[in-house]
Amino acid sequence: MDSYDYASSIYKLHLVSNNEVNTLRKSLLEVGPGDSGLSILFAWKDGFDFVSLLDKDISNVISKIDIITKYEDCKLEYLIKNDKQVTFILKSSKLGEIHVDVIQTSFQNEITYKPRCKFTHAFSNAVLQHMEENEIVN
After folding, report:
1. Among 4, 9, 25, 125, which one has the highest count of C-beta atoms within 10 angstroms of its own C-beta?
2. Can you list the alpha helix ranges (DSSP code H) found in 57-125?
């Protein structure tokens, strides 16, 4: 999702159009593959506290985070940063803070990720239709 408009439309399709706007929002899981970095910004603006992205390329997400930090007047604090996982906190006087985990996966093998919290919302624009229910455990 390289385009802001496209990423926004996908985000809104999964959350806003499903009447999720007025519910208590705490944590979001988005399963790629694809550049999911803009979902962090949309979720943050919608009041989410925690976002977890499973994506095929962490570097694309980091590039989006760099753009977000320039335009949203926020501070970025890395907790973990390696070739398979990036964990950080974004802080802003306007938006508060959001905790983010980005896990890199090829989607070819089992994904071994233990989230720090239960998810109140989850979506994927492409992958969930190809996964069996017993493969998604929260």
Report:
1. 125
2. 58-71
In sequence order, what are the residues at sequence separation of 6 or more whose Cβ sits closer than 8 angstroms to the Cβ of residue 108? none
The Cα–Cα gap between 119 and 20 comes to 14
In this predicted structure, what is the pLDDT of residue 100? Answer: 94
The model's pTM is: 0.76
27-31 and 121-123 as β-strands: parallel, antiparallel, unpaired? parallel
Would you tell me how many other CB atoms lie within 10 Å of the CB of residue 71?
A: 8
How far from 76 is each of 66, 91, 98, 100, 123, CA to CA, in Å?
Answer: 9, 7, 10, 11, 25
